[in-house]
Amino acid sequence: KVEQGAEAEGIEPQVRCDRISEDFKGLCARLKITHDNFVRTTDESHKKVVCEILQKLFDNGDIYKGEYKGYYSQRQEQFLTLRDQEEGEWPALYGEVIEITEPAYFFKLKQHQDWLIQHLNDNDDFIFPKFRKNQVTEFLKEPLNDLCISRPLERLKWGIPLPFDEGFVTYVWFDALLNYISGAAYGTDEFEKNWPADYHVIGKDILVPPHAVYWPIMLKAAGFELPKTLLVHGWWLQSGEKMSKSSGKAVNPLDLIDQYGVDAFRYYVIREMKIGHDSNFSTEIFETRYKSDLGNDLGNLVSRAVNMTARYGAGIVPAETISGDPEKEVKETWENTIAELGELMDKFQYHIALEKILNFVRSINRYAETRAPWQLAKSEEAEDKKTLETSLAVMNEGIRLASAVLTPFMPDICLKINQTLGVSETVDWDKTTVWGDSLKGNTLGEKVILFPRIES
What is the pTM of this model? Predict the structure, then answer.
């Protein structure tokens, strides 16, 4: 497809890939997604790894030459069998399917089928979520065919030449799967630190057969450990259908980022997707989350706290001097929240973690309504003055803690909150998530509007 697309544009495949890769890098930067390495399978370091592993498998007798005769999907760049049909028809995802006969090199896939079935049985956590395992076991109920791993040079030039026969290039899936090894710095001292992966994140549409069948067998044959878990994510749907440019059903995240900001977009997609399942994208729900969770709950809380601290405390965070039931209640809510977050994050239940955090934010808002600093400020009583100071301290400390645990989800917004609170950036989770008096004496910054009102 890369070669065909480049030919249609009248450019070289490398030029086309250079352009497209920059689009993906740019999207990562816009979404505040950081990465250690952006792997390109045209990198010389990657080509070297592919050739080394191909040669090793060939020398070990795991690769042999034969003839391929059958069906080929140009869209998926995948050889097919009749069992891939549905009711006698090729599914639309395969696009045009052609029948071909050609010499080819094959990887001995089927001799490892029993081993793979046993590995799945012995390692219940190999696929997450567990219901995705059914898809793999169903596939393995039928005998595997050996995998054709070559394309003749006269039909395809865009690829890595086989090291043992330069009349052929490597099949895209065999080449592409090995980028996980080359990207983990295979051949250097770093590799042992990086491999095996704890979680290998993939999309559900490429679980079977590439990542759940080809990939583990390739690793075993080449003498590598397998990733501990394949974390399989679902699709974003719109009106119950997969979003795609070709179907005309797609939401451009850059449009939403331009309108609402990157952190609002990050919050929505993490809050609305249960990892491993499909989720339905709704601009209406997006706007509701923006106005309610972010604007009314979090944004207004920060604005009120800064405003009241400025009016009733000269902009300086006072100390807590009393501890009544309202204070105990909000602190207990925090302790319950932080006690649950670690396990929720470890189990990829980010949507529930965000709901817990926002519930804590709402508890601070309720606390403010209970203590009513604007009423306490009218009193001349010494006890009311202490209560006023405590209420300001509790509200600001609660915001600091909420910001600490929201940082992975909304880094820019939390940076603004921390700057307003006079908090320096820190990565010490244990210290930043313990209720304390670290804000005492801090001069708060100017009032900040975190989530401006935006018309639909």
Answer: 0.89
